[in-house]
Amino acid sequence: MRPISYRDCERNITLEPGTQNMKPETINNNFKTEEYFVNMGPQHPAAHGVLRLILTIDGEIIKNVEPDLGYIHRSIEKMCERDSYQQIVHLTDRMDYLSSHINNEAVCLTVEKALEIEVSERVKVIRTIISELTRIASHCLWWGVMGMDVGALTTYFYGFRDREMINDIFEETCGARLTMNYNIPGGLMFDIHPNFVKRTKDFITHFKTKLPEYDRLLTGNVIFQKRTKGVGVLTKEDAISFGTSGPVARGSGFANDVRKRHHYSAYDRVDFKEALFTEGDSFARYQVRIMEMWEAMKIIEQLIDTIPEGDIKTPTNAVIKLPKGEYYQRVETARGELGVYINSTGTKNPYRLKFRSPGFSNLSVLDHITKGAKIGDLVATMASFDFVIPDIDR
Fold first, then answer.
1. CA dihedral 252, 257, 260, 266 (to 10 degrees)
2. What's the CATH architecture for 76-392?
3. pTM score of the predicted model
4. What span, in angstroms and rounded, lies between the C-alpha atoms of 386 and 48?
5. Domain ranges of the chain
6. pLDDT tens, 327-368?
7. Are 250 and 257 in contact (CB under 8 A)?
8. Is the pLDDT of residue 21 over 70?
9. Given the DSSP bridges, would you call strands 352-356 and 337-344 parallel, antiparallel or unpaired?
10. Cα distances (Å, whole numbers) of residue 125 to 147, 186, 202, 297
11. DSSP per residue over 302-349, as a string?
C-alpha cells in the first residue's frame, strides 16, 4: 500500500478502494477531492473587524468568497433623516474612523454647496492640511497591520510609533484621537492650536527620515514580495467595471484621484503626483500607499507656511435648512472616493441621505480576484485593500 503523503492530506484527498497497489501516475487520476466551507470571521484577525467571509474551498484552494455583512450595522443613513445637518457631521467619523476628518469635510462641503456658502481661504487650507495628516496616519496604521498580517510583527510597532505623533497633533487641535469632529458646515469649530504649525513641521521632518525605514524593513523584503507580487491581481478594466476607487483602483492603473479631477478645499493650489501603478497586484496597491505618504508630505509642506489669515466660520443660521433639491459631493479618503448624496425637501432634516463609501465597492471585487488562490493569498490581498468595516457596513 502506498502511504498517503502530506500533499495528499493537504488537498483533502482520499483513495478509492482497490487503488492501493496501482502505480502513482494512475492513482493521480483517481484522486477524489471534497469541497467544504470555512468561516473567516466575524471575529478573525485577518478580517480587520466584524466581517464574515464564507469561503468555499477545495483543499486549500479558494473557489468562492461570499462576504456576509451586517455585524456592525447601525443604520447611520436612516439616523441622518432625523438629525439636523450639524448633527449628521458627527455620525460620519463612525464610518471610516481612520478618515474621520475627511468624512466630516465631505458632509460640510455638500451642505455648503447647497447653501452656496464660500468658506474662507484659511478654512480651505487648514482642512487640506488636516486631511493629508489624516491620510498619512491612516496609511501608517495600514502599513503596520499589513506587515503583521503576512508575518512581520515589527511593522506594527513602527507604524504606530509614527501615527502617534499625528494623533497628538489632532488631540491638541480638536480634543480627540480617533472619532474626531473639527469641521462644521461653514468652517471649523475653532482655530488651530498655537503649536499646530510647529508640531506639523516637526512631524514632517521626523517622518522623512522614518519612511525610508519602511522600505528597508518591508518593501524590499524578499518574503514580503513573494507574498504580494502576482497575488490578487485586479486588471484596469475590472477595476473600472466594479467601481473601485482609491489605492485599489490606482494600483491597477486607473487614474481616479478626486483631489486631482474634482478639486475641493485647497487642492487646486498644490502640486502633487497621483500615485499610479499598472501591475494590479497586492504589491502595487502597497506601493501606491507608500507613494501617497510621500506626496501627502509635499502637499502639507506647500501649505503649512502660508496659512492665510481670515475667519474660521462663515455665518449660518442656527438651524440649517437646505433649499429643496438634490446635492452631491465627493472627496478622496484614505481608502478612496466617498460620495455624499442629499435629497432635501427644504426642512432642517434631509429627506434622504446616501453615502457612497469606497470600502463597499472595493469589497465587491474580492471574490473575483481570489478564485483559485490559497487562503494565505486571500489574507495578503485583503490587507492590500485596507478595509475598515464600519465604512462598508453602515
1. -150
2. Orthogonal Bundle (1.10)
3. 0.89
4. 8
5. 6-68, 76-392
6. 999 999 999 999 999 999 999 999 999 999 999 999 999 999
7. yes
8. no
9. antiparallel
10. 33, 14, 19, 14
11. HHHT-PPP--SB----SS--PPSEEEEEEEE-SSSEEEEEEEE-SSSS
